């Protein structure tokens, strides 16, 4: 039997994992503090000047949260649409596109050896071995390796229409359990089977329906207003 290339994590991996989790926790706290600061800042400045500032700050925080897997960024976007309606819709759409693009690029340019090291430290040796095997494959072979375990013709269909599948996942209700938009975009980038410009175009179309409806009909079209 072939021995795994990435053995179980040694005891020192615990320290590295704690550092990583600590950095992630600090990043989450900083994002939350940034949102709180933006809200507080908007309450202490002149209304004519403060509203644009608070909107820009909220959109920046929203874009950052959208880019982070499992973070509730969508709720901020919905809140902005409810508060400002059609006026905010184009900016919410743009911020969503920026956040998802950042997540995709982060995954696309994430070094495989570094990720394999993290998976090994987390005792996910089989996942680390799989990534190590597929990283050297050309795009088509990598796509086949990623979809070969799907049943029947599903793998072939997803491989062929992968950009449509990506758009569907972005709009899938409850997708937060699989990482949210940021997590989905990051995994898409990590797979290295999605072209950068094609993915950007997919993101722009996939996130457009809700802001477009708000622009055309108004915020009352959102189910949260009923």
TrEMBL record:
<feature type="transmembrane region" description="Helical">
    <location>
        <begin position="50"/>
        <end position="70"/>
    </location>
</feature>
<protein>
    <submittedName>
        <fullName>Uncharacterized protein</fullName>
    </submittedName>
</protein>
<keyword id="KW-0472">Membrane</keyword>
<feature type="transmembrane region" description="Helical">
    <location>
        <begin position="163"/>
        <end position="188"/>
    </location>
</feature>
<keyword id="KW-1133">Transmembrane helix</keyword>
<feature type="transmembrane region" description="Helical">
    <location>
        <begin position="200"/>
        <end position="218"/>
    </location>
</feature>
<keyword id="KW-0812">Transmembrane</keyword>
<feature type="transmembrane region" description="Helical">
    <location>
        <begin position="91"/>
        <end position="110"/>
    </location>
</feature>
């Amino acid at each position: 039997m072939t021995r795994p290339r990435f053995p179980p994590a040694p005891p020192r991996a615990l320290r590295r994992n704690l550092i990583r989790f600590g950095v992630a926790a600090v990043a989450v706290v900083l994002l939350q503090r940034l949102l709180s600061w933006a809200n507080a800042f908007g309450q202490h400045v002149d209304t004519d000047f403060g509203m644009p500032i608070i909107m820009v700050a909220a959109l920046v925080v929203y874009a950052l949260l959208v880019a982070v897997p499992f973070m509730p960024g969508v709720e901020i976007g919905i809140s902005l649409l409810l508060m400002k309606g059609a006026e905010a819709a184009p900016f919410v759409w743009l911020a969503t596109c920026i956040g998802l693009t950042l997540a995709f690029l982060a995954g696309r340019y994430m070094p495989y050896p570094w990720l394999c090291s993290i998976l090994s430290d987390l005792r996910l040796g089989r996942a680390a071995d799989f990534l190590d095997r597929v990283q050297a494959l050309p795009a088509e072979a990598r796509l086949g390796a990623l979809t070969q375990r799907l049943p029947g013709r599903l793998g072939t269909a997803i491989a062929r229409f992968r950009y449509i599948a990506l758009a569907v996942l972005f709009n899938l209700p409850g997708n937060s359990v699989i990482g949210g938009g940021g997590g989905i975009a990051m995994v898409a980038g990590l797979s290295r089977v999605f072209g950068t410009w094609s993915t950007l175009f997919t993101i722009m179309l996939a996130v457009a329906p809700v802001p477009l409806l708000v622009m055309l009909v108004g915020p009352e079209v959102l189910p949260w207003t009923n």
